[in-house]
Description:
Helices cover 35% and strands 22% of the residues. The protein has a seven-stranded mixed beta sheet with strand order 6-5-3-4-7-8-18, sandwiched between helices. Helix 2 (36-51) packs across helix 6 and helix 7 packs across helix 8 (220-233).
Amino acid sequence: MPKLILDYIYEHEVARADQVYLTxxxxxxxxxxxxxxxxxxxxxxxxxxxxxxxxEPGARIAVLSKNTAHFMMAELAIWxxxxxxxxxxxxxSADTVKYVLEHSGASLLFVGKLxxxxxxxxxxxxxxPCIALPLSPKTDYPTWDSIVAKAAPMAGKPARGGxxxxxxxxTSGSTGTPKGVMHSFARATAASEGIVAxxxxxxxxxxxxxxxxxxxxxxxxxxxxxxxxxxVMGRGHIFFAESxxxxxxxxxxxxxxxxISVPRLWLKFQQGVFTKMxxxxxxxxxxxxxxxxxxxxxxxxxxxxxxxxxxxSGSAPIPPALIxxxxxxxxxxxxxYAMTEDFAFSHTTTRKHNALGHVGVPFPGVxxxxxxxxxxxxxxxxxxxxxxxxxxxxxxxxxxxxxFRTGDLGELSPDGQLKLTGRKKELFKTGxxxxxxxxxxxxxxxECPMVELSLVSGVGQQAAYAIVVPAEGLRPKLAxxxxxxxxxxEMANVLQRxxxxxxxxxxxxxxxxxxxxxxxxxxCLTPTxxxxxxxxxxxxxxxxxxxxxxxxxxxxx
Length: 557
């Protein structure tokens, strides 16, 4: 029988019993370390408790929590007890929490570390059993610690079948209602093994693996690349972040050798650097031999990334110029392309295949082809089993020979590297009658360090337009007329630069400066920080005609 993820875990439990595996901040700079033995002892005790509840085989058990050591322990307990994990983004609204719990048919909910519990608890269905993890908000629920103190650890090596569902991953809902993506133990294991093999090939077998877990574990990127790959590798050390305010200290504690993030955060890190040193000055210093290397190392040290041997960006397109900026600092930043539906195991750049503007080549075992219209079709070892309760969607997304229709458009370079050119559902027609793909144009705009986020739209208009959100550090200064004028001129320059690089039917009529930043809280971003196009377009719909009646290249909304 092939090894599954639980088999790897049982091996590490014995071979690495006293190795510290998880480090959890508990406040005021204090941390608690958990060895493999300690982690598994707690997970086994909770597994006994869950098993005694008499849930059906494969029962869906949910976790609503930020990343913590006990999130991972809860997952292990669920698996050993015969259940399926349903993770909910810790920033979700009460309505979405309720939808996921009801749609999945959850039998129990673990409530963990949360910032907005007061707004979320109304989404918990009446009568649903709940357990409070350590670091959770104050509740009346039975606590993890009180339960594991009384339960005996589950003995032996409880096995799960390869075809059994390990995880039910709900997408972040950027295009509508979240969908439940089913991943089996066999496919989750295969993808995790592939991730570990890639990292060892790129960094050398036995490389020191330290990682800071802070992207939501409810998102496939973190779940696959940090948690599940870590369970397979075993020898690593996973640190957790305490809060946004302590993030730099958390990074410096972890001294990560592997660090993954999403484009918006890579951009915010860069903008943070520019608040301390203007971009032009830094560029000039980096161009000076010897001094440039000293300056680059200092910048990475201040970011807490000076020991990183592999950095990754995923979840959304990243401006090629931003990757180039980090590589100039000496950071090995690679870009990947994958999705919830293939367990984050599809394409990646490598030391050999790393052309800017491309997302690399397929991982070993991944098959790909482009459909007649340029849609990317993928068959991955991590391909989903199907959508939960949605056989109609399964019929739509799978080809007769088993390839998954990604909905993304792409093209291939002569050496096989994939370039993303947009999403089929995001294409729109202007009054000129030709389709415009917004994502590549947004990437050109986002290269400007004064811009945090952008959106390109313009259905049926004589030309497309873009909305931009100024960089976070810049926004408070825009009340100054001189700063506002400088920003306006820079946006006019960006508009000209973009229009010089795109086809005539893709050219922008104007750049509109958003009234307020887009965030998860105001519903304009998903929990994984992707823009919600439909939400933003609907919010500005009544203003669009007025914008087109305004003269000049830049409009302030």
